[in-house]
Amino acid sequence: MQVDQLKVKITAINEVAPTIREFCLVPVDGELLPFSPGSHVVVEMDGGEKTYKNAYSLLSDPRDVSAYRIAVRLQDASRGGSKFMHEQVTVGDELKISTPANLFAPHWPAKKHVLIAGGVGITPFMAYLPELERRGADFELHYLYRSSQTGAYRELLSKRLGGRYFDYDSLGGSRCDAVEVLSNRNLGTHFYVCGPESLLSTVQQVAADLGIPDSAIHYETFAAPKPGEPFEAEISETGQVIPVGAEESLLEALEAAGVEVPNLCRGGVCGQCQCKVVSGDIEHRDNFLSAQDKAAGQSIMPCVSRSKSPRLVLDI
Fold first, then answer.
1. Does the pLDDT value for residue 140 go beyond 60?
2. 300 and 284 Cβ atoms separated by less than 8 Å
């Protein structure tokens, strides 16, 4: 087990929506580490022939470290991780998780916080709410979901937040108008988005149209890397050649071959796994590198991005 990993035991599993299960994790030894609202952990799952590593937001009250809670949606096109959590993990099982990391913390000086969640993207906001309430912060939550699949905790949230809660069930014909949500806000309002890429891109476009600065838009996505054509990765220093399959990410292939690459979000957002590229044609899929950096073709985020050429040579 890596030094920065914790061993935890599953003490409860609850279905909180048709495709979402909540897992309660307690430490096997010692104590859990404190965390801040918006933190996530990377859960390591031993799938036999393959080890899965997925990032999940902590949804517990950050001041309660007696247990961590995460919620996992069974993805329609699961690459194995969410399917493993739903079908293989049972109460009493032990898992390894990373220590908490935070790439999505609230901007506390904000005059108002507008939270926009899509589906299982509600999870980081579950940890936001206790701290926002303790601080007496001005906030509201907009929750978009499809009740046949997601919509976890919506009754609890409606009761808890009252007039600060706005509910949009697409199956019920209720649609969120992003222009209405973002318009006519006072200076100092910050917006937080967690959900599918389509929700994030919509909010970003509306914000740009309304002249809202990028610094007031905070977002988090944990989209799984999409499949692509197989290719080879060559490590320039050693000459080691590593095949990358169609269904695995470059980062996963490197890890399986024993090549350590620092990483944090595994979703193309944080930049921790950035690698130098010596040669090859990169297919950029991340939200970290700038357009200029992508055009230069000298760096890749191996957690989500791939190669368009048969071989990619990396300086690791």
1. yes
2. yes
